[in-house]
Specification:
By secondary structure, the chain is of the alpha/beta class. It is about 20% helix and about 35% strand.
Length: about 250
Amino acid sequence: MPSGWRVATLVDARAESRTARTLVLDVPDWPGHLAGQHLDLRLTAPDGYTAERSYSIASAASGTAPSVRVEITVQRVPGGEVSGYLTDAFAVGDAIEVRGPVGGWFVWSPVHDAGRPVLLAAGGSGVVPLVSMLRTRRDAGDRTPFRLVYSVRRPEDRLYVDELARRAEDGLEANVAFTRAAPLDARRAPGRLTLAELGAWGWPADIEPACFVCGPTGFVEAVSRTLVALGHDPACVKTERFGPAVD
C-alpha cells in the first residue's frame, strides 16, 4: 500500500437527505485534522481498477490518536461510480482506503482565528466543511460570532437540518436561500442570492470578518465576487470549490 494510505472501516452511516449519506469511518493512526480540511478515498476493484475522490471532513477538528472516527457526507452524483457506491452499497463493516488530511488554507481554528467574526457561505453540499467549523467551535466552547448563508435548490436538498437548528441555540445566525422551490413559510421567493442579501445576512466589511465560501464553482465565484464588491478584503475571503457550476 502506497505511503499515506490507511485502511479505514465504516462503523456507522445515515441518510442526510434524499441523495446524500453521512459516513462514519474508523481510521487507524489518524494524524489529526483541522476544521475545513478534506481527505481522499480510494476504491479498488477485483480487477485492479482504482478510483479516487476527495471529500470534505464534517467532524470537529481532532488530534492524533491510535484510532479516530472521521465523518464525511457524500452527495450522490448522477452516474457517479464512486458516489453511487458510497451512498447505496458501502455497508457497515466494509473497508476503504483513506489518505489525509489534505489542505491547510481553507481552515478555521478557535486559537489562530480568535476574535474575528466568521461568515460561512455554502452552496449545496459545500456546507460539509463549514459544519466541521461549527462543531469545532462547539467542542472548544468558543463564542466567536458565526453567521451562515446556505443556498440550496429545494428544501429537501438541505443537509444537517436538525444540527443547524441546534447550533442556533449556540448563537449561530443562519439564513437559507432556496433557488428553485421554497417552503410555504420561507421569507423569500426562490432565486439566487443577491448582493443585498449577502450584505444583510453577512458581516460588515469594516469589521474584517473571516469569510469561508464553499460549493459548486459557479456559486463560489459569484459569492466571492459579491463579497469583494461589498468591500471585503479578498485576502479575508477563503474559497473551496468542486464540480460543475450549478445554481
